[in-house]
Amino acid sequence: MKKPNAYTLRIIGSSPSSLPLSRLALYLAEMSKLLGHSEKVHFDKVVKGSAALRVWVEEDVAPAVKARTRLAIAGSNSAPKEAVESLSRINELLSQDGKRGELKNPEGTVVIPFPGGASKPQEAITMDDETSIVGQVIKIGGRDDTIPLTLTGSDGIHYNCTVKGRELAKEISAYYLGDLIEVSGKGYWSRLPGGKWVLDRLIVRSYRELADDWDDALTLMSQLSTDWGGGGDVEETCAKIRRG
């Protein structure tokens, strides 16, 4: 005969035969804290299929248990602290067991799902590699031999770096809000859930100025037998190059 006022905690992916008695006791202890009125809340049975722990409540306290449970699930300030904490603890137990679950009220409605193991964050994938980035120095300064440096790339991304050595930091500081530079060193990367890699930090060991490269390129271009450096028509110049 089905007991009245029954609450059921279903552990999805488990079964009565695979649920150790010690774990059963822990789950029931948290259900007791959630429902309260321990003298009038009783264990019924473990239902077959996915292990479903069923308890039932005596009629005279059923309204109070229902109200207590509703407040705890809503996270109300009026809910007893142990009732609210029991929900987190149940989810923690499920996470430890690699399961998820749900709590059903006497009407058979799921009143709260427990993500359990499904709520565990993916392990971060990290790597380090020799890295070079190009950007403008927007911040540099510090008092020891590891100087914080921030560069802004052409894509607007801010790169957090650390310069090894005061002399190197002093040289790089000359480019504050100036020309773009390329810094190189050991980069520490993380892969986001979507698969994109992001640079967490870069230990800068060297740099090079890019402005000189452009000056050299422009000088070489001006020495070519074209009107490029003299402001001639670019399309016509390109056409001449193609025609030989």
How would you describe this structure to a colleague?
The protein has 244 residues and is of the alpha+beta class. It folds into two domains: 6-119; 125-209, Nucleic acid-binding proteins (OB fold (Dihydrolipoamide Acetyltransferase, E2P)), CATH 2.40.50. It is built from six helices and ten strands. It has helices spanning 21-35, 62-74, 81-97, 166-173, 211-223, 234-243, and strands spanning 6-12, 41-47, 52-57, 100-104, 110-114, 125-140, 146-152, 158-164, 181-191, 197-209. α1 (21-35) packs antiparallel against α3 and α2 (62-74) packs across α3 (81-97).
Low-confidence stretches: 224-231
Portion in strands: 25-35%
Describe the largest sheet.
Answer: 5 strands, antiparallel
Q: Overall pLDDT, averaged? A: 82
Helix content: 25-40%
Tally of separate domains? 2
The structure class reads alpha+beta
Shape: elongated
Total beta strand runs = 10
H/E order of the elements? EHEEHHEEEEEHEEHH
Radius of gyration from CA coordinates:
33 Å
Biggest β-sheet: strands ordered side by side in the sheet: 2-3-1-4-5
Distance between the first and last residues' Cα: 98 Å
Number of helices: 6
